[in-house]
Amino acid sequence: MGKSDVVLEMRNIDKEFPGVKALNHVSLQVRKGTVHALMGENGAGKSTLMKCAFGIYHPSAGEIFIDGEKTEFKNTRDAMDQGISMIHQELHPINTRSVMENIWVGRVPHRKIGPIHVVDERKMYKETVELFKGLNLDIDPRKKVGELSVSICQLLEIARAVSYGAKVIIMDEPTSSLTETETEILFAIIKKLKVQGVAIIYISHKMEEILKISDEVTIMRDGSLVGSWIANELTQDLIVTRMVGREMTQRFPQRHNVPGDIMLEVENLTSVNPHSFKGVSFHVKKGEILGVGGLVGAQRTELMEAIFGIRKIDSGSIKINGKQVQIKSASDAIENKIALLTEERRSTGIVPMLSVLENTVLAKQTAHTHKYQTSLRLLVDRKRADDTLQFVDSLSIKTPNIKTQIQYLSGGNQQKVLLGRWLLTEPEILILDEPTRGIDVGAKYEIYTIMEQLASQGKSIIMISSEMTELMGMSDRIIVMCEGYISGMMDGKTATDEKIMHCASSHRN
Ligand SMILES: Nc1ncnc2c1ncn2[C@@H]1O[C@H](COP(=O)(O)OP(=O)(O)OP(=O)(O)O)[C@@H](O)[C@H]1O
Ligand SMILES: [Mg+2]
């Protein structure tokens, strides 16, 4: 691979934010028709570097070249005009508009009828069909975007990037909300794009994915470049070592927890909604980690939300410590010492404009609103800060300080703040929905350690996970769901990929 293949080059990029040096002399060379993976721990600077390549941020120092020519991006529009596109994690489609209008927004073709310009629907339709055909996408261009799933919207974003004639498409954790089938579709599209000479920059924490689709891998640590390698020369262990800067021999902590009496028992939980949970019965013991496996769409999240009181249950019962309870809202759940860490931190979790501190104390505050008297305010403020600092420390949350708005933290670090929020309510039953999604290997280990410690203290933990290794590595017992039903149950020690997958895709007969 010669120098002439390089389509995008970033040289000695620095980026400083008040109090943070996010990038320190980072260089990157991306070649035509290749997938270039960008890896590093949470807060390493991956997204920041890509925002510099897409004109969202201006580097404090350094140079950018496209096809060997030095350039600068005034804004994202400018970057797009120069052939760079980025698929965002947070998508903002216009839900009331059609698929094709979303693709061509800002560039809708017009035709003239007499003196009037009207939208040329037919041309737009034809071009959309052609675009989709080139990508093997089977989506109706006239459908309203509001009717499509988040994952299909993500594929639309990619189609849109292609329609701009992008030479480089940046994908920042594109598969975090995709099902396995959708991930396969995405990979097929990536292959097609490669053949057409498009370069893809791919950020992900999923090691298997990286080794499967990338040609080159660049690893960053603490805002600096560790190095770039040909993917074939790397193994998962090598990547991990280079990412965290030390050897990580264990992915899971030793477990000492001993399951005791039954803590939570649900019987026959059913929702009348046709696409929801049906006749679900299971229990979790004190000091037990119960894994919940299944494919996306298995209704695991819906079930847990129902137990947490934020989704309707039409029949069935919930017992805590042998006593039947009525949980009709999140505050009922918190009162019953249940905590729920949700999977979609952006829509249901963080409050972007509030500080790390305020985000951390939020759930606890809800539980104790107005209990504090004004005269105690100072004491309370002190306590809130202490509580927050404790989690910043124990979860290694990377933030300039606890007053920083949470929106400025990296994705993985936001997730850790949310975990801290729930731990602060001192729950007896902790429900974690995909707790390590978007979390790097080192931080995963920290989260697993906390789970182990809580279980050892006798707390009950329910963990929804789509990662097989995590399910098997952390669960005492695993239940598997499929299409709203529990389709299997097994011991964590004897579970295998095959067993879990078999249950996850076996319809109830
Ligand atoms: N707008 C901003 N203001 C202040 N600090 C910021 C801003 N954007 C990013 N940072 C900081 O820069 C550092 C790098 O963050 P970045 O989002 O690039 O990490 P990342 O490698 O993408 O991590 P993750 O894997 O968790 O997504 C972090 O310490 C983050 O808090
Ligand atoms: Mg990021």
For the largest beta-sheet, the strand count, sense and barrel status come to: 6 strands, mixed
Strand content: 25-35%
Question: How far is the first residue's CA from the last residue's CA?
Answer: 55 Å
CATH level-4 homologous superfamily of the largest domain? P-loop containing nucleotide triphosphate hydrolases
Total domain units: 2
Q: Outline, from the CA principal axes?
A: globular
**Mean pLDDT metric:** 88
Rg calculated over all Cα atoms: 24 Å
Summarize the structure.
This protein is an alpha/beta fold and about 500 residues long. It has helices at about 45-55, 75-80, 100-105, 120-135, 150-165, 180-195, 205-215, 235-245, 300-305, 330-335, 345-350, 355-365, 375-395, 410-425, 440-455, 470-475, 495-505; strands spanning about 5-15, 20-30, 35-40, 60-65, 70, 85, 110-115, 115-120, 170, 200-205, 215-220, 225-230, 260-270, 280-285, 290-295, 315-320, 325, 340, 430-435, 460-465, 475-480, 485-490.
